[in-house]
Amino acid sequence: MLSTRDLVLCALFAALLGGLGMAPPIPLGFLPVPVTAQTLGVMLAGTILGAKRGGIAALLFVMLVAAGLPLLAGGRGGIGVLMGPTGGFVLSWPVAAFVTGWLAERFATNANPIRLFAVSVVGGILVVYAGGIPWLSLVAGLPIEKALFGSLAFVPGDLIKAGVAAVAASGVRRAGILPIHA
Amino acid sequence: MLGLYLHRESPVHRLPAGAKLGGLLLVTVAVLALPGAWGALTAGLIGAAVLVAARLPAGRVLAELRAPVVMLTLLFGFQALLAGGGWEETAVAVARFAALILLATLVTLTTRVMDMVDLFERLFGLLRPVGVNPAKMALMLALTIRFIPLLGEQVREVRMAQRARGVERNIAALFVPLLVKILTMADDLTAALEARGYDPADAGTKNSTQR
């Protein structure tokens, strides 16, 4: 059962996803394109809150986007965006956060950044692409291998985000104020 | 909280959120079941009719559609170039989804965020038998809406602090303090809720969360 603190944590991380969408993109020193950090927030929801609470946090966020709040990067939102070609990449976030958290609870319980990185890659990248690419292929009438190929352009940026998520989660765990392991 | 909602006096705006969402679902299923070109045509005509009935400015609606349409067109052009044959099918598929996206956008533009959230809460009631507590979901949605501006502010604040220290490009220096702040905020907010008599074990009805 969710405690009051769990409810607050889920809402705060859902709001963090929204806050990251509103913030201007973060410049990374070594990368020419700035990254928007929302998928990073999804990974962090999983690694820091765990499977259940992380999944709920991402679900709350997706529901508010569907309800018509312009929370996605660039001020986009609404059911139209979710049904659009890139909608699958957003709709998969609750599952992505859940899987990231599920794996983190089993394989990345300490502050080891390598393990946190691996967990973020599987949950935050593989799961998101597994939802987004077939969706893109369906909506755009594109053969799946072409949708896959087109999406590969985003992999380097996503790997960097997983790295950042791992370093950040590791830092938070070392700070020792963790709510994890409900 | 500002949403994408555009207010007009129209019968479409007055329809309950559930009717609009249900209608969208039905039309989507029907359009996908119809053969391609007919599906696209049906969805396009319904979209145009709703657009007129809702008295929305066409320019504004099309602006919402620009991003997906540009993307679909690019993909479509790319696809036509590479595949050569069979591009008519792709064109039909793209038109069909563009029309459905138009319909979905119209639902969003004519429905208040809070009406949609209320609808989600009622839908969660249906999930009670599988252990979902609709009152808790409702409270979390309300809290999230309240926290979004707060968190936007926190993100800005931490970024400015790190810029002042010359470490704005060190991304760990951004996220660790932000997350630590969020986790300590959680303690205060939990205490605030409980001080107001919120009891998660007693969260059976919507009213018990609003006392």
TrEMBL record, chain A:
Q: Which GO terms of the cellular component aspect does the record hold?
A: plasma membrane
| This protein's record includes keyword Magnesium | no
Q: Which residues form a coiled coil?
A: none
Q: How does it sit in the membrane?
A: Multi-pass membrane protein
Q: Which domain of life is it from?
A: Bacteria
Parts of the chain that traverse the membrane? 31-49, 56-73, 79-104, 116-136, 148-169
GO MF term set: biotin transmembrane transporter activity
Entry keywords, A to Z: Cell membrane, Membrane, Transmembrane, Transmembrane helix, Transport
Where in the cell?
Cell membrane
InterPro entries of this UniProt entry? BioY (IPR003784)
What is the similarity comment for this entry? Belongs to the BioY family.
Give the protein name, as stated in the record. Answer: Biotin transporter
User: Per the UniProt entry, what species is this protein from, by scientific name?
Assistant: Azospirillum oryzae
From TrEMBL, chain B:
Compartments where located: Membrane
Pfam families registered for this protein in UniProt: CbiQ
Membrane topology reported for the UniProt record: Multi-pass membrane protein
Q: Name one GO cellular component term.
A: plasma membrane
Q: Which residues form a coiled coil?
A: none
Main localisation = membrane
Keyword annotations for this protein, in alphabetical order, are:
Membrane, Transmembrane, Transmembrane helix
Fetch the InterPro entries from UniProt: ABC/ECF_trnsptr_transmembrane (IPR003339)
Which ranges does the record mark as transmembrane?
21-54, 66-87, 94-114, 134-152
User: Is Transmembrane included in the keywords of this UniProt record?
Assistant: yes
Could you tell me which CDD domains the record lists for this protein? EcfT
Please give the family membership noted in the entry.
Belongs to the CbiQ family.
Q: What is this protein called?
A: Biotin transport system permease protein
* Annotated source species: Azospirillum oryzae
